[in-house]
Amino acid sequence: MGALAVAPVAPLVGLEALRHSLDAAGRVQADEWARIVADYGRDFYTLPAADLAEQLRADLMVLSHQIAASPADRDLMRAAAHLSAIMAMGLSAAGQHGMARRWWRTARAHADQSRDVDCRVWVRDWETVNGTYEGRPVAEILSRADEAVTIAGARVSVGHVGVLSGRAQALAVAGRPVEARAALAATAAMTDRMPAEVVADADSMFGWPEVRLRHTESFVYTHIGDVDQAMTAQDRALALYPAELGRERAQMDMHRASCLIQGGHVGDGLRYAADVLDALPAHDHTALLYQVARSVVSVVPERERRRTEVTDLRDRLAALPGG
């Protein structure tokens, strides 16, 4: 770490390497990487994507050197798995799906090497959930979900319930409503069994608050065309969403726009979607949000496709702000 700290690398990498060198000299507690991972679990929802990527790059560079020195350290492998998955999520949100797939492979490999069941399932959970946004084949998404469920067994965990949620979403996108409803029921049943401290963790990727269940319900019911149930879930979620989770709330607001259109209120739905984009700060606009917004356009009936609002919204979604 001392050598890396003085090497000609990016400033953040050198600075973080220096901090780890000082920690090692001072015999800091061995769970430092666990705290770093926990921080990222919250920062993912609030940091601008560019800042998150730069910080992750610095930490992963340092971590890679530590793993090279201690390749059998399972704690380091677990940290690498978590941070690689978060990197994959960030790349996916930026529309870099090809690069994201590579990081998902890296995350799974490190998780498996850690031999930590919860970590292995958690990584596959987020890959499953992100699969629909990345445009992966449904069969591939469901295969990853099945793999995770097999690893989890009867274990109740954030990763396990997240995988069930991702399976429900994939089935809804595939137009398999009966199976999607069954998967959603399984998600709700496991949510009822989650520990209180996990349910209370509302602003972390490692928590499972009620709002995540309601978001999943909103997604599934919107995609299978059950507008009434979708809007009920949205009302509940909107009352629960923490203010700092603006990007996630905006995604679900797009479900509301889709429901308005499916309910025959085409103009209202299109204006609602545009208002959501206007209200969200530019640095929170992501490719993932735009993917959800494009699904709003896709439900506009053919006879209504010539509306000015359709053209305007489609043009806005052609590229992220700033290219």
Explain what you see.
This protein is mainly α. Helix content is 75%, strand content 0%. It has helices at residues 2-6, 11-25, 32-46, 49-69, 74-93, 97-114, 117-131, 138-152, 158-173, 177-191, 196-200, 210-224, 227-240, 246-262, 266-279, 287-298, 308-316. Helix 10 (177-191) runs antiparallel to helix 12, helix 13 runs antiparallel to helix 14 and helix 14 packs antiparallel against helix 15 (266-279). It is globular, with a radius of gyration of 21 Å. The two termini are 37 Å apart.
Distance between the termini: 37 Å
Given as residue ranges, the uncertain stretches (5+ residues, pLDDT < 50) are 1-9, 25-29
Work out the helicity level.
over 70%
Number of helices: 17
The biggest beta sheet is recorded as: none
Evaluate the radius of gyration.
21 Å
Average pLDDT figure: 90
- Computed structural class: mainly alpha
How large a portion of the residues is in β-strands, by DSSP E? Answer: under 5%
Shape: globular
- What's the number of extended β-strand segments? 0
Blueprint (SSEs and pairs):
Layout: H1 2-6, H2 11-25, H3 32-46, H4 49-69, H5 74-93, H6 97-114, H7 117-131, H8 138-152, H9 158-173, H10 177-191, H11 196-200, H12 210-224, H13 227-240, H14 246-262, H15 266-279, H16 287-298, H17 308-316
Helix pairs in contact: 2-4, 3-5, 4-5, 5-6, 5-7, 6-7, 7-8, 7-9, 8-9, 9-10, 9-12, 10-12, 12-13, 12-14, 13-14, 14-15, 14-16
